[in-house]
Design a protein that fits this description.
Helix content: 40-55%
Strand content: 15-25%
Strand order of the largest sheet: 2-1-5-4-3
Largest sheet: 5 strands, antiparallel
Shape: rod-shaped
Low-confidence stretches: 509-516
Length: 558
């Protein structure tokens, strides 16, 4: 800006100077011309008196080299000329100054010669005898006059230019200084030109509005970041050209993205058909939903189009939400398996009961066999009752619908009660069951804890060898109480150890049918442990035995 002000000032000064020189030269030229005419008039008056007294002899004896003197007769014939032979000169009656002198006693005309670049001033005056005396003098043109003054003019322009440059530099600096010192953050506090005050006030108002808007945007950005970064679901925001505008930490973890890399195109994140089809549908304005298997887990992709209300709801991009539904899918699979297993487990005893009832109704059963068949019906009915009871227990544990009273429970005392309940079962299987350790008290539901220990001990007895052993050990620690159930039974293969807590899962189905049971015992143990925030650990070797450990936090609230 300083440079522009400096150059503008120089241009104005030089232009004004040159224009002034031209105007002054013009004025001087007009002044010189008037002075010349006055001089010619004076000279003409003197010469006219000499002519009237002495006639042409006065002219012939007159020495005047500075002007041209011509005497013209009344008819325009040249009587005398001091520069040319009068006899050879043409008639001058048509000359402008001659005609004007004939009419008005005096006349003046100026004729310019382009070849000589000068003008000639002609002054004519009518004498008493009606003849005309004309005096002419040459005068340089304006440009010739300027040319003659070129050197002084150039000196004047140079000096004026240097002075104007110095003055312009200081003036431009002085003009710009208040502007350069303006604090744009607080322009209203600056002491500057009055003419700038309205402009600075508007800037200050805009600064306040911009600051308020920026603070609001930052607040919204922080809220958006806080929400998206704490989401367990992955989130992508893209424009209509598949360019990523934003994504959260969960999306990086789900798709194993490098936090130090920059991802611009969404299709570079995942190129699977399901992922691409969901994104394309959203960018065509349609809601889309699809499942995606990635790194051993199942994710649900939900994509929706985003429209710009300021552009007549034109498509602006899309939002893609990635939900981990692995557990949901597993629960759905468990539900289907559970339904199939329950149907099978219920069908077996019901089929047996129905068959026996049909035989008895047909009257083909001997009287002495009726008690045997009745006993069979009773056994199958008890099996159904036990199965339904276990299903109800699991359902209540699944839904956290256990409303029994919570209390301080001593696991050692509870284990001894369970051993007493299983005395007949253990004696029949020829298995020894013992308890050892110390007392350990936790806060929990006594009935659920009793069922957990009962199922663990019952399984240890059922799947044991004859003359086998089962022992329950309780150990008190500062923060936890550890309950361990060990046996010397058939053990569990390594490949099946991760599934033994599933509902209706049996390792050895032929042996399971022989010993009976619903296949829900360890599932009840698993859900009971979850209810009490306990940790389960299983260790087993085939034909050597199984060890199941439960670690209960002492102060956990159920």
């Amino acid at each position: 800006m300083t440079r522009r002000i400096f150059l503008s000032t120089i241009v104005v000064v030089i232009s004004s100077l040159l224009l002034s020189i031209l105007l002054i030269t013009g004025v001087l030229y007009e002044h010189f011309e008037k002075v010349r005419v006055d001089e010619l008039e004076t000279t003409g008056s003197i010469i006219s008196q000499g002519i009237e007294q002495n006639g042409i002899s006065y002219l012939e004896n007159l020495e005047n080299e500075h002007c041209r003197i011509t005497w013209i007769d009344t008819d325009g014939t040249v009587l005398y000329d001091n520069t040319q032979n009068a006899a050879e000169m043409e008639n001058h009656a048509d000359r402008e100054e001659i005609q004007e002198a004939m009419e008005n006693r005096s006349g003046v005309s100026v004729r310019h010669s382009s070849t000589l670049s000068e003008s000639t001033i002609y002054y004519a005056m009518r004498l008493d005898d009606e003849t005309v005396l004309r005096i002419a003098v040459a005068q340089s043109s304006v440009w010739a006059l300027l040319g003659g003054m070129l050197t002084p003019f150039a000196f004047i322009v140079l000096v004026s230019g240097v002075f104007a440059g110095l003055l312009s530099y200081r003036v431009s600096k002085k003009i710009v200084k208040p502007l350069s010192e303006i604090d744009l953050r607080h322009p209203e506090q600056v002491d500057t030109y009055d003419e700038l005050s309205p402009f600075l006030q508007r800037i200050a108002a805009q600064n306040r509005e911009i600051t308020r808007t920026m603070e609001e945007l930052q607040k919204q950005q922080q809220e958006f970041s806080m929400i998206t970064e704490n989401m367990s679901e992955g989130l992508f925001v893209i424009d209509r050209d598949y360019q990523i505008l934003s994504y959260n930490k969960s999306a990086m973890q789900i798709f194993s993205l490098d936090p130090h890399a920059t991802y611009r195109n969404l299709l570079s994140v995942n190129r699977s058909e399901s992922f691409r089809s969901v994104v394309e549908s959203a960018l065509h304005g349609r809601h889309a939903q699809q499942n995606l298997e990635l790194n051993g887990r199942i994710y649900q992709l939900i994509a929706n189009a985003v429209c710009d209300p300021d552009a007549s709801d034109a498509l602006a991009g899309a939002v893609i939400l990635v939900l981990d539904i692995t557990e949901k899918e597993e629960q759905e699979r468990y539900r289907r398996e559970f339904t199939a297993n329950v149907s099978h487990e219920l069908k077996t005893p019901l089929t047996s009961i129905s068959g026996i009832a049909e035989i008895i109704r047909g009257g083909i059963v001997r009287q002495e066999d009726i008690p045997h068949f009745a006993g069979k019906i009773y056994e199958e009915s008890q099996r159904l009752i036990t199965l339904i009871g276990d299903i109800i227990k699991l359902s209540r544990l699944d839904e956290n619908a256990v409303t029994l009273e919570r209390e301080q429970v001593d696991l050692m005392d509870l284990s001894r009660d369970v051993v007493k309940q299983l005395t007949q079962v253990a004696r029949k299987a020829n298995v020894t069951v013992v308890t050892k350790g110390t007392h350990g008290v936790i806060y929990g539901v006594r009935q659920v804890l009793s069922e957990m220990i009962y199922n663990l001990c019952e399984n240890a007895i059922k799947y044991n060898y004859e003359d086998g052993r089962v022992w329950i050990e309780v150990e008190q620690k500062p923060d936890v109480v550890i309950l361990t159930v060990c046996d010397t039974g058939i053990g569990i293969p390594v490949e099946d150890q991760s599934r033994v807590f599933e509902r209706f899962f049996r390792v050895d189905k032929s042996h399971s049918k022989a010993v009976g049971g619903t296949g829900l015992g360890l599932s009840i143990v698993k859900h009971g442990a979850a209810l009490h925030h306990a940790e389960i650990k299983l260790e087993s070797k085939v034909q050597e035995g199984t060890k199941i450990t439960l670690k209960f936090p002492k102060n956990a609230k159920v």
